[in-house]
Every structure is written in C-alpha cells, then in structure tokens.
Amino acid sequence: MFYKSKATLAVAAAITSFFSTSVFSQDAIETITVTSNKIEQSIENVLATVNVITRDDIDKANARDLPTLLQSLGGIDIVRNGGQGQNTSLFIRGASSSHSLVLIDGIRVGSASLGYKSLSTVPLNSIERVEIVKGSRAAWYGSDALAGVINIITRTGDSSSVAFTSGADNYTDLQFSGALNGENYAVVLNAGAEKTDGFDVTTNQDLDRDGYENQNVGINARFQTADFGEFKFITQYSEGEVEYDSSGDDLQEFEKFHTLLGWTKSVGSFDHQLQLSQSKDKEFNTMQVPTAWHKPSNYQTNREEANYQLAVNVNSQWDLAGGIDWNHEDLSDSVNAWAGPEQPKSGFTDETRDNLGVYVGGYFDSQALNVNAVVRRDDNSDFGVNNTYNVAVGLPVSDIGMFRATHGTGFKAPTFNNASSIWGTNPDLQPEESANTELGFNLNLAQGQFDVAVFKNDIDNLIQWVQGPENVAKAVFEGVEISGQFSLFGFDNNANFTYLDAKDEHTGTQLVLRPKHAVNWTVSKQIDALYLAVEMQYRSDRLSYYQTPLQSYTLWNVSANYNIVDNIKLNARLENAFDKDYVTNVAGTNWQTGEITSNYVGAGRRLYVGINYSF
Q1: 3-state SS class at 580
Q2: How far is CA 26 from CA 18, 446, 448, 569, in A?
Q3: DSSP character for 29?
Q4: How far is residue 125's CA from residue 83's CA, in Å, rounded to a whole number?
Q5: Residue 41 has what pLDDT?
Q6: Pairing between strand 148-154 and 100-104?
Q7: Burial annotation 122-145 (CB, 10 A radius, 16+ → b, else e)
Q8: SS3 state at 417
C-alpha cells in the first residue's frame, strides 16, 4: 500500500524510497530520495528499515486518519482507545509510544509531560508524505528514538485541489490545497475542516457518542537565490476538540502548531543546513457537563529548536557529516487544577529543560562494501551527558540484493511527569537506555521486491511508578519482519508478516497489548479509470493492561477511486466490511473485585464517499 524501502540514513536520516507500491502499484521508479533536514544518500546504501507513505498513497487509500495508514505497515501496531482523534498507542516492533520519536517537518513535536506525540489529531490533508524509520536512531536524533522515528512532511507540490468526503456517524471533511510556483519560488497552502459525531467507544460506560472535530491551515514557502542558497518558511496550525469516555474529564480541546525558518546552501563539496523552529502542544481537559467539584486542567508544551549541519562529499566513496542541535522545552503555561497553594500551578516542580546534542558520522559506499557509522553526545540540563552510537555494514549481492547488519544504542530522558510531577519525584531517576540490533536481507527481482529483518531491542532502566517513579524494569523485544511487493495473476500485492516476542526480562511475562503475530495484505488492481483495493489485517491474541486476554481479530477494508474525467475523481472506502465485533483494550474494572466492567471496542462497518477536483 505504500512506498517501502530500506535506506541508510546519513547523520540524521536520509530516508530513501526504493520502489513504488503506491497502493500496491508496481510502477518502476528508479530513485526517490527523501530527506528530513539531513544529508541525502543514494538508495544503494540499504542499511535500515524504512517505510514511506506518499500523498498518492493517502489519496488512494481514502483513510480518515494517520493511525489507519500506519496500521497496515509491517512491524507497527496501533491500539485505539476509541475512534477518530481519541487516544491511540503506537508500537514499533513492540516498543511503546514514548520510545518512538515523532517529528513534523523534521522538528520535535508533542507533549513533553507525556513524552510522546498523539498521532490521532494530525490532519491527513496537511501531509505530503510520512517517513517511518525502524530501529534505534538516537545517534542521529538524541532522546526518544529507541525504537524508531516517524517524520511527517507537510504539503508541497505544484497542483491545487478541493475535496469533500461524507460518511458514517455524520462524518464530513472539506480539504483544500493550493500551489503557486514561479522560477525561484514555490508556495503551497493547505486547509481543512473535519467533523464526526463518532460512536460509543466503550461498553457499559458513558452511553453516548464520542465525537471529534479539527480545523487546520498550513503554509509551505520556499525561495531560491543564486548567491545565498534556498530559504524556506513552514507553518502548520490545527485546533479542535475530542470527546471521550472517562469517569472524570470527557472532553479535550486542543491547539497545536509549529513554525520553522530554514536555509540550505551548497558550496563546492560542502552542504550547509540551518533550521530554527518553534512549536506548541496544548491540551485543555474538562467535562462536557461540569459538576460542582470539577476542576479543568491545561497541559501545554512550548518548544524552541536550533539545528545546524555540515556535510562534506570527500570523494565518490566517502561522505562525512556532522552537526549540532539545541532544544528548549517549557511547561510553565500548564495549569494543574489540583495543585496546592504552595505548589507550582503547572503541576511540575521543574518546568523547563534544555538539551544540546553534537554528532558526527562517516559514510563509505563501494560496490563491495557499505559502512555507516555515527556517534553522538547529548548534554541534558536535568540528566547530564548521554553518549550513543550506530554502526551499520552492508554487503551487496550483485545488483539484486543487500545483506545488512546494524547495531545502535539509544536513550530516553525521563518525562516531566516522571521527573518533576508534584505527585512524586525521584532525584536519582536515570534515562532509559536501549541496545538495538538488526540483521536483514533485501532482494529485488523482476517478479517483485522482498525483505526479511530479524531484530532485537533491549530496553533497560525502564521507569515504573512504585513509591514514585523508579528505574526498575527491563524489556526485551525480539522478532522477525517479512515483507513483499509483487504481482500475481495480474493483481498487485503488498503483504507483510511480523512475529514479535515482547516480554519483561525480570519476570518473563509477555508485555500487554502486543500481539505475537500480525499480518497485513492488500490486493489492488487498476482497471482503466477504476482503481480498486482490498485490505486484510489480522492481529493475534494479546493481553490487556489487567492481564486479561484480548481475542484475535481480522478486519477487511475496501477502497475505490474512479476518474470521471482527468481532474475529477470519485472515491469511496468501506471499513470493517464484515462488521466484525472486537475489543481493543479494557476501559474499566471494579476497584473492589477487579472484575472488568467496560471495554474499548473497535468501530463497526462504516462507509465514506467523496469527490476530488484538481486544477
């Protein structure tokens, strides 16, 4: 369903798309190189597992949110506590949401108090492509990238369009994208308004619909000069609200934006990149019908970042790159309604944090051997110095494949919730640490493209609340990821299988919400003006947070696109075509007996239809 490739990432992620499966099409695309504020490398350096979701993939799938698209990728599982906009957990090869770094346009976003970015409120109309890098990338990015990196690139391009979609649960979505291009400049505007009444996401609790709405706008502007290089300005803003089921707050109003200024210039063999950025993640939690005792809370993360990188092309086989990045996080605008008169109103005893990172890497590429090596040093104002590295070796097999071996370390600085909450702190708290190893083989034949990856990720010093936050746990994630894109009987196929063994190293018990087996398979066909795709998703049994079994399930989805004329397209998507009943997580228990009283349930059958006009 998506562009999928394996690519070496230069000092901080040259992400390369290897071949197009654009919703499983096998159209030959020799080279597509995608970068996220870092140095480019050619696709021949195939040493890390990468998926790329393109704008064309998004349009053909007709999905309603980003988690839906991510769910069909190998090695990734999404657990929803509700419907659109509501809490969604991301697991990359078993590691939790807080162990994967989410970037938008190459900058950090999300809640510094929780330690991760919510993907369910990112508007799809604002996205040009999504790059997913699996494995530890801390040597490029610093804290949080223990299991992988997701970089969301906002809209670019040279065409304009208007789209409208309507469907189940009174869903409506109006999107606009407009482009203005000249000889030395390009400006793209995107805007959208999305709303749904939702469905009742839990059983035996708050018997009501849980709706969602999102309004957003963004600009991507670039200007090229002959003498001073390229300048860019990007900003994206969204606001809205999410209803959810809870014994307390059941309504969240959110406001999120990021803006950046960037500059790039090449002088001979030297490539300079500079970027300054600012972002805000605000979530105001309250009740739809406030009670007399209720107190709303506001959690807001403000970030500032500065990044500079220099890349040097030494010769046809050697490249060097290094850089420095600084970021500042500030939670002082947060309001914890339950903070006492002698406590900080934000709810955090330490409201700000700085991090300075320096990295350098070398990249060797020949017909007989590929080697990538990078080291990084981070100095955190609260947790001191952390050193990380990544080494990858690739052995080409003629022109049809590549053996690869990668080993890297990572760390995650404790979140503000763990490190400085008014409800409990621990001055001896240390960063979580990881050691990640991957062995893989990529094969490219006329019949299709295939990849096998065997991975192991050890995460130590995991933080759990005992009598306050403590470094007490260790988790091990081992598994195999197999994927293939091929044509069979005239149909395009994109399939992946993941086996995962995720367990607590101390107790030997399986970690919750991680299925051992996951299968995704999409079959598609272009028939003149009609494009048709059928998707299957299977997840095996897994445990809930309360150690109760969650039954396996299989879902079937269908998407279709029909070009009436060249610039007018009808589209449709049928989700959960067989109206499968399934449980995603436990929502509530009886605090006296431990008996489960409520479950989160997946959405039933739903149909969406739309029209797109491009100009």
Answers
A1: coil
A2: 12, 10, 8, 22
A3: -
A4: 18
A5: 66
A6: parallel
A7: bbbbbbbbbbbbbbbbbbbbbbbb
A8: helix
